[in-house]
Amino acid sequence: MSQMRGAASAGSPGPVRRRGVPPALRAWAEALGAAVAGIVTMLVVAALGLWAAGAADLPGGAFPSVVAATVLVAAGGSVGLFGDIGGLARAGAALDVVPLSVTLAGALVTAVLFLRPLRHRAVAGTRELFARIARTAVCWLVLLLLLTFAARHRFRVLVGNDLADRLGAELGATPTVGFRADVPATLGVGLVWVLALLVLAFVVSRRAPLSPQLLRFQDSVRPPAFAMLLTLLVYVAIGLVIGIVELITKDRPADTFAALFLGLPNLTWMALGIGTGGAWVGHVDKAIGLPLPHVLDQILRTHGKQTLDLGSLSEHDGRAWILVPVAAVVLLVAAFTAAVRSPARRPAWRHAVEMAVALALTLLIVGLLTRISAHYGLSLIGVGDLGGDLGGEVTLEPQLLRLVGVGLVWGLVTGFLGSLPARRVRHPGEVGRE
């Protein structure tokens, strides 16, 4: 009898009802719990990273506002920078960089808790799935809206030039810099962000229920999607191990700690792209507080824009070539995992094509997420200029076509090779062998 009830629960398209709790209230509580847990996780990770980076010492109690702004940016929001120095001076500032450690932590927690109520279901109705996604998105947007009120601050800036500082104090033109959230952009892009996250959660998870109309797509989409998630997480895990070793053996542990809690995926996913033959182009004019590894800083801190790829990295550190075998091993394991999760007797060429498409899309997204564009400039009655001695700039742009191209090639090769040993492993749904 209990087995019959369990089977009915697994195959039923409707939600599981429990006595004493209205289904609608339970559904909203689950949505709110997933959204709150994700935002709280992001706040904690951002606070730890910013504290290590020295943001706790910002004047005027700006630390909570900076944490809120960092979470908004990590969740797809927009925070604008501005300068206010009166008519005697000009200021310009811009910052476009995603703290992917914060993003990844919040995304994983939100996705896991979002899918948890559905873990014992095999099939769910389309209306129910859309309703769950909509409720979670609404709760997420409300929390983002609350954060926009905290993500605003203004504080004084010392430009580091004695003449400019003295003149500013005497003339009442001491430069101040502030930031505030762009509410419409934050809510608009934040909605796209959370919807993409929840859809990807269904795409990646093998246990998440789908509507009957989508079941025919799960065998061709879910295995390579899970393989890409596995690849990205393995790279983050490798970077975490290296970071822990750096904390123990190297000087300046605070910088390493800040990089781990703010930009670990930024660096490790770039390592994936570079290891497969991709490239970024950038320039570091002056350091403006963004944590960059020493070797990247050496390459980019030169005259004009520089290409960041295997060749340029190996010129400064011959160990850079280890990125190639690391990429090969990780992608072969990912391809093998995808093939094992796919139906039996699927031809190797189809595994190769699916892996190629998945890896190309993944590297495209990695390139878009790892862009950096940051600058600050100041001109005070002719002392300095927006791009000169009183300013700084960091730019890093991906070569997207190159990333997509190497993704297709590596995906075809590793997808084909990884599927060959998978033929000897039992696949989902197999009950025996001929």
Task: Report what the structure shows.
The chain folds into two domains: 21-210, no CATH class; 224-428, no CATH class. 59% of the residues lie in helices and 11% in strands. The chain has helices at 2-11, 23-52, 63-74, 100-115, 126-150, 162-171, 183-204, 218-249, 253-275, 294-300, 310-316, 323-341, 348-369, 400-422; strands spanning 79-84, 89-96, 152-156, 176-181, 280-284, 306-308, 372-380, 392-398. The strands form two sheets. It has a five-stranded antiparallel sheet with strand order 2-7-8-5-6. The longest helix has 32 residues, at 218-249. It starts with a helix and ends in a 12-residue tail after the last helix.
Defining traits:
alpha+beta; 5-stranded antiparallel sheet; about 425 residues; 14 helices
SSE order and pairing:
Elements (H helix, E strand, L loop, with lengths): L1 H10 L11 H30 L10 H12 L4 E6 L4 E8 L3 H16 L10 H25 L1 E5 L5 H10 L4 E6 L1 H22 L13 H32 L3 H23 L4 E5 L9 H7 L5 E3 L1 H7 L6 H19 L6 H22 L2 E9 L11 E7 L1 H23 L12
Antiparallel strand pairs: 1-4, 2-7, 3-4, 5-6, 5-8, 7-8
Helix pairs in contact: 2-3, 2-4, 2-5, 2-9, 3-5, 4-7, 4-9, 5-7, 8-9, 8-12, 8-13, 9-12, 9-13, 12-14, 13-14
Number of strands: 8
Number of domains: 2
Show unreliable segments.
1-16, 378-390
Number of helices: 14
Q: β content, as a range? A: 5-15%
Biggest β-sheet: count, sense, barrel?
5 strands, antiparallel
What distance lies between the first and last C-alpha atoms, to the nearest angstrom?
35 Å
Main β-sheet, spatial strand arrangement: 2-7-8-5-6
State the helical fraction. Answer: 55-70%
Instruction: Report Rg.
Output: 25 Å
Global shape: globular
Give the mean pLDDT.
Answer: 81
